[in-house]
Design a protein that fits this description.
Helix content: 55-70%
Order of helices and strands: EEHHHHHHHHHHEE
Number of domains: 1
Bound molecules: fe (ii) ion
Number of helices: 10
Distance between the termini: 67 Å
Largest sheet: 2 strands, antiparallel
Structural class: mainly alpha
Number of strands: 4
CATH architecture: Orthogonal Bundle
């Protein structure tokens, strides 16, 4: 379109058709994202059928993560990625044998090694979905510790993505406070103290502070349910 060294503006009809194409690409992208989310939700349902604790756990981890992300003033895009990552962080447990996943007593060393594979399994499943690169990476890294002693990669501090650091706090808090057939959940206050005690070693101290701050604000609302936007559904806070 170069003429006498001057760039001509595209004609109105060319501009409109370019705009039309751009919006088609955008809506195709949005459709693909929706398909990815739907497919991942289907796998999560399959995991629910195998182990119905993990589904409720994943929803509560998403809720605790959203509370923390809100306090940390994450952007809308970061919040969406965090929510997706939290919902699907344990999806790899679909590959963990039932005998290990549902064992009511302490895991043997060998069983613990099998259990420790689930973040990598989550990564392998999630990375197959379009637009889930970061979600897959966050799921893979949700057992990394702030002091570098976590797994699978032994990343340290800010090398670990913020979402993965948040999910570890949310995940541990839910594990401590939910009641299982073999033990009663801890009261929130006791679990807050535990998180604080392991701030700086296991957990990012700033994010622990923001999590507790956010949870105290949540308690003031006195609601029995929480809402997970991506599931378009409310869930009971009571972790049975
Ligand atoms: Fe996990």
């Amino acid at each position: 379109m170069k003429k006498n060294n001057v760039f001509e503006l595209p004609s109105l009809s060319t501009a409109l058709s370019l705009l039309g194409m751009a919006s088609q690409v955008e809506s195709l992208k949005a459709d693909n994202k929706k398909i990815s989310e739907q497919a991942a939700r289907t796998i999560l349902k399959a995991l629910d059928a195998k182990d119905n604790y993990t589904f409720g756990h994943s929803m509560r981890v998403a809720y605790f993560s959203i509370v923390t992300g809100t306090e940390a003033k994450l952007s809308a895009e970061e919040m969406f990625e965090l929510e997706l990552s939290a919902i699907f962080h344990d999806i790899g447990k679909i590959g963990t044998p039932d005998a290990v996943l549902n064992k009511p007593s302490r895991l043997s060393e060998e069983e613990f090694l099998i259990m420790k594979k689930h973040p990598e399994n989550s990564y392998e499943i999630l990375k197959e979905f379009p637009y889930f690169d970061k979600v897959a990476e966050n799921a893979r890294l949700h057992h990394e510790r702030f002091d570098g002693k976590g797994y699978p990669l032994g990343l340290k501090g800010e090398e670990i993505p913020t979402a993965a650091r948040i999910i570890l706090i949310a995940d541990t808090f839910d594990a401590m406070t939910s009641t299982r057939p073999y033990r009663k959940g801890l009261p929130y206050e006791v679990a807050f103290d535990e998180l604080t005690q392991f701030s700086g070693s296991q957990f990012d101290p700033n994010l622990v502070r923001l999590f507790i701050q956010g949870m105290k604000k949540e308690a003031l609302k006195g609601e029995e349910e929480f809402f997970i936007p991506l599931m378009d559904k409310k869930f009971n806070k009571n972790a049975a």
